[in-house]
Amino acid sequence: MFDYTVETQRSIDEAIENLKASLIDEQFGVLWEFDIEAKLQEKGLDFNQPYKVLEVCNPHEAKRVLDKNKMAGYFLPCKIVVYRDQEVTKIGMPRPTALIKNINNEDLNEVAADIEKRLEQAINQSI
Fold first, then answer.
1. Is 87 left (phi over 0), alpha (psi -120 to 50) or beta?
2. Radius of gyration for the alpha carbons in the chain, expressed in angstroms and rounded
3. Cβ(123)–Cβ(19) under 8 Å?
4. Which residues, including other chains, have CB under 8 Å from residue 44's CB and lie 6 or more apart?
5. Which of 16, 119, 125, 127 is most buried (most C-beta within 10 Å)?
6. What is the DSSP string of 47-116?
7. Beta bridge partners of 92
8. Chain centroid to CA 18: how far?
9. What is residue 9's three-state secondary structure?
10. What CA–CA distances, in Å, run from 29 to 26, 37, 79, 95?
11. Are the beta carbons of 7 and 85 closer than 8 angstroms?
């Protein structure tokens, strides 16, 4: 599967707060939090669904990936999305292993699998 997505009964804000804390436990930080709903409304578009994208990074892992292949930077930083869908909060991400397969480098596949496992743990701890 391309994605890893879970559901939670938490509000978006609670889910993001818990996610940020669990990301720290996995040595990832949030570089940027993009509120798509607010941005689209700012541009005059009718979009009334909470939808936030968190760009997360572990600098040591980013360097490790880039040292192996500069094109891996096309997938950095990792994205985790938190949104509401039919009264349920969802937290999801594209799987790093699914993305990195496009580069066709066995060493990168192993790194991506490790990063994916750690991000999944952070997401699971936040629900």
1. left
2. 15
3. yes
4. none
5. 119
6. --S-EEEEEEE-HHHHHHHHHH-GGGGGGPSEEEEEEEETTEEEEEEE-HHHHHGGG--HHHHHHHHHHH
7. 5, 81
8. 14
9. coil
10. 9, 23, 11, 18
11. no
Q: Helix, strand, or coil here: 118?
A: helix
Please give the domain boundaries of the chain with CATH numbers for all domains.
3-126 (3.30.310.70)
Q: If residue 3 lies in a helix (H) or strand (E), which one and from where to where?
A: strand 3-8
Q: Is the preceding omega at residue 77 within 30 degrees of 0, hence cis? A: yes
pLDDT digits (tens, 9 = 90+) for 29-76: 999 999 999 999 999 999 999 999 999 999 999 999 999 999 999 999
Q: Which residue has the tokens 């990168």?
A: 108
- Does the pTM surpass 0.90? The reply is yes
Q: Is the pLDDT of residue 106 over 90?
A: no
87-90 long-range contacts (CB < 8 A, ≥24 apart) are 88/7, 88/8, 88/9, 89/7, 89/8, 89/9, 89/10, 89/11, 89/12, 89/15, 90/5, 90/6, 90/7, 90/8
